[in-house]
Specification:
single chain; about 290 residues; alpha+beta; 434 Repressor (Amino-terminal Domain); Beta-Lactamase; 2 domains; five-stranded antiparallel beta sheet; 5 strands; about 45% helix; elongated; Cro/C1-type_HTH; MLTR_LBD; XRE family transcriptional regulator; Lambda_DNA-bd_dom_sf
Length: about 290
């Protein structure tokens, strides 16, 4: 080794920095698939899959060899998946890895998309809300309701939803407002839960439409927020939205609401979101908001 170093110096070649990758053994850059698998592996406890914790476990979740065993693949192959050296597993392998990592239907769907096993969803170019749906929103005076577009933009909202969300100050994009609008952080009783769920849902949109300019613009804007960057790095995927939210509203007090979400069949990619009060106090809070709207 010393003679090799001496020859390099004599030839005038610069020695590589100790932390630099060796030219013969380059470091592998994880793919999006590999990063997702690693994050999912860290979230699974050994006891969740019937394994012993052990005394000298150095990783927060499963070891790679444990995932490989549970998935029925070789350790080397699974390591290549996480390291980005393999990015196109078969459907059978993806299913086995998904089971090993205890992914739900949304997590498994995300894994399939990252592995190129499902085609990206075509983005809708027209985000106009149909007149009949606008009329229906207006008829719901007792229920806040709005229509979401493909990048979490609020395309239309009835007056009660406008009042509930403080008129959507600053932006009408739910991801942006959650992180970039100070008023929204105080509006939710449990902002952290709402924020993480919103990020996890947006990750599905991004994976399905990675080239969509609207989605990329939203990510560029919200990426300035440190909380968002930390939650995005978790690589959590949640398809099902929160079923309830509690608002601490400056004009309506504490309002507990159940949430229902429906796909708009006439406009693929759009969602109708409807809130319903579950207590008398919450119904009274919504009534106060209605009274303020005249």
């Amino acid at each position: 080794m010393a003679s090799t170093v001496h020859r390099l110096r004599r030839r005038g070649n610069a020695l590589p920095h100790p932390g630099a990758p060796h030219p013969l053994y380059p470091r592998h850059v994880p793919s999006a698939l590999g990063e997702f698998l690693q994050a999912a592996r860290d979230r699974v406890r050994p006891a969740d899959v019937g394994l012993s914790e052990g005394e000298r476990r150095r990783v927060p979740g499963l070891r790679r060899e444990e995932v490989a065993m549970l998935a029925g693949v070789s350790v080397d192959y699974y390591m290549r998946l996480e390291q980005g050296r393999e990015t196109a597993p078969s459907g059978a392998v993806a299913a086995g890895v998904g089971r090993a990592l205890r992914l739900d239907e949304h997590g498994l769907g995300h894994l399939y998309r990252l592995a190129g096993l499902t085609p990206p969803r075509a983005g809708a170019t027209d985000e106009r809300v149909e007149d009949d749906l606008l009329g229906l929103l207006g008829d719901w005076r007792a229920h806040p309701a709005f229509v979401l577009g493909q990048a979490f933009d609020v395309l239309a909202a009835n007056p009660l939803a406008e009042a509930l969300f403080l008129g959507f100050p600053g932006t009408r994009n739910l991801l942006e407002s959650t992180f970039l609008v100070p008023e929204m952080r105080g509006l939710y009783s449990d902002w952290d839960v709402v924020a993480r769920n919103t990020v996890a849902g947006f990750r599905i949109l991004h994976a399905a439409q990675p080239a969509d300019d609207r989605i990329r613009r939203v990510l560029d804007r919200v990426g300035a927020d440190a909380d968002f960057r930390a939650m995005w790095a978790d690589r959590l995927v949640v398809g099902r939205r929160l079923e309830s939210k509690t608002f601490h509203h400056p004009h309506g007090g504490e309002i507990d609401l159940r949430i229902q979400t429906f796909d708009v069949r006439a406009a693929p990619g759009q969602e109708l979101v409807v809130y319903r009060a579950v207590t008398d106090a919450s119904r009274a809070g919504l009534a106060l908001l209605n009274d303020r709207n005249g």
